Amino acid sequence: MKILNIDEAAAWLRCSKRTVYRRKEIPRIRHGGKLLFLLEDLEAYVLSHREVSGGAAPTTQVERNGLQGKIDGGRVTPYHRNPIFLVHSQRSV
Q1: What CATH code is carried by the domain that includes residue 40?
Q2: Do 23 and 35 touch, CB atoms closer than 8 A?
Q3: What are phi and psi of 4, to 5 degrees?
Q4: Which of 30, 52, 69, 91 is 20 to 30 A off residue 3, Cα-Cα?
């Protein structure tokens, strides 16, 4: 078990100290007013947030349908008036 300070953790994560401070999901230990990090926790954090390359299955309905828009209360709303950008069920083609 290796304990890192904020400078070492930021260097290991390859980001700035400010980013490490602001991202509350990065596992940390507060001891005596200092932030400390366990190397094993940082490794697990990085592995859990890595992107899968090469045709990963789409996770949202917007990605599955190839729709462009934003999710608003569970609905997909078009962001443009051009009919080619509308949701398939709303097209009058």
Answers
A1: 3.90.105
A2: no
A3: -115, 145
A4: 52
Residue 34 has a pLDDT of 92
Total structural domains within the chain: 2
Strand partners, 3: 38
Domain presence at residue 54: no
Structural domain of residue 81, as residue ranges?
A: 63-90
CA distance 92 to 50: 41
* Residue listed under structure tokens 């462009």: 68
Decide if pLDDT at 50 tops 50: yes
Integer Cα distance of 24 and 8 in angstroms = 17
Query: E strands, the chain, where?
Result: 3-4, 29-31, 34-38, 70-72, 75-77
Report the C-alpha dihedral over residues 11, 15, 16, 18, rounded to 10 degrees: -120
> What's the pTM value of the predicted model, to 2 decimals?
0.53
